[in-house]
């Protein structure tokens, strides 16, 4: 049942992404068409023609990039898969985040009470937790502790990212994962959580978010334990 639920949700996300992406591709394509039309005028100078051509090229490149990014998110099978020691990989991620944490007076505390392995792509795993931890740090406007925990039971392994930041309302929590959903205005893209959630689903993980306004947020990721190891 859970498997089914996760699959349905993932499809929903892909559909939303497709809508967002066609919107993103339409802008450069519309611009490109405009420049092709301008170039149909045979009386324009060679200089102008070169200028239009270079804009045309850069518009087509940005449309191509949108598609490429989309394929990277939806095609995890082309990525190299390895057995990852979760604690080691989380250490790498927290090291990457250290400068940003310092700048925001955030202290990252890791507490690994167990060891487990995940089969997945190393880069994607890093990207997923960089996105989550970056948000946590950004939510902690006055600094404080940020906990990274690893724990397991007989059937599941958990990774928890627990911040003491500004938290979210129920509505905000429900919108997490929606493409382009951001409360950060110009400085946000609203793509981080969506990408992270897609990566977690590709790793057969499930996500649980608990948040309280003014108190903080906990992202809990749960993975089935592979008992054959
Ligand atoms: P961005 O960071 O570019 O806004 P994200 O997809 O990473 O986009 O996050 C979407 C939104 O989710 C953020 O704008 C923020 O409102 C909310 N959010 C995510 N993580 C947290 C967190 N740890 N604490 C509070 N709000 C968060
Ligand atoms: Mg973000």
TrEMBL record:
UniProt catalytic activity: ATP + protein L-histidine = ADP + protein N-phospho-L-histidine
Record-level Gene Ontology MF annotations: ATP binding; phosphorelay sensor kinase activity
EC numbers for this chain: 2.7.13.3
Keyword terms, alphabetized: ATP-binding, Kinase, Membrane, Nucleotide-binding, Phosphoprotein, Transferase, Transmembrane, Transmembrane helix, Two-component regulatory system
Histidine kinase domain residues: 20-227
Enzyme class: transferase
Name this polypeptide is given: histidine kinase
């Amino acid at each position: 049942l859970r498997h089914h639920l996760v699959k349905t949700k993932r499809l929903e996300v892909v559909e939303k992404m497709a809508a967002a992406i066609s919107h993103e591709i339409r802008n450069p394509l519309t611009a490109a068409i405009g420049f092709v039309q301008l170039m149909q005028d045979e009386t324009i100078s060679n200089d102008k023609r070169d200028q239009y051509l270079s804009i045309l090229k850069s518009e087509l490149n940005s449309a191509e990039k949108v598609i490429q990014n989309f394929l990277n998110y939806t095609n995890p099978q082309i990525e190299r898969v390895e057995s990852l020691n979760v604690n080691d990989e989380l250490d790498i991620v927290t090291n990457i985040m250290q400068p940003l944490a310092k700048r925001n007076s955030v202290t990252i505390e890791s507490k690994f009470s167990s060891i487990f392995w995940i089969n997945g792509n190393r880069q994607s795993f890093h990207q997923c937790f960089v996105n989550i931890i970056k948000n946590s740090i950004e939510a902690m406007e006055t600094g404080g502790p940020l906990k990274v925990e690893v724990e397991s039971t007989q059937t599941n392994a958990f990774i928890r990212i627990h911040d003491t930041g500004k938290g979210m309302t129920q509505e905000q929590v429900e919108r997490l994962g929606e493409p382009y959903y951001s409360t950060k205005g110009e400085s946000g893209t609203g793509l981080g959580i969506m990408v992270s959630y897609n990566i977690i689903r590709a790793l057969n993980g499930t996500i649980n978010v608990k948040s309280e306004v003014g108190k903080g947020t906990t992202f809990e990721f749960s993975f089935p334990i592979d008992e054959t190891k």
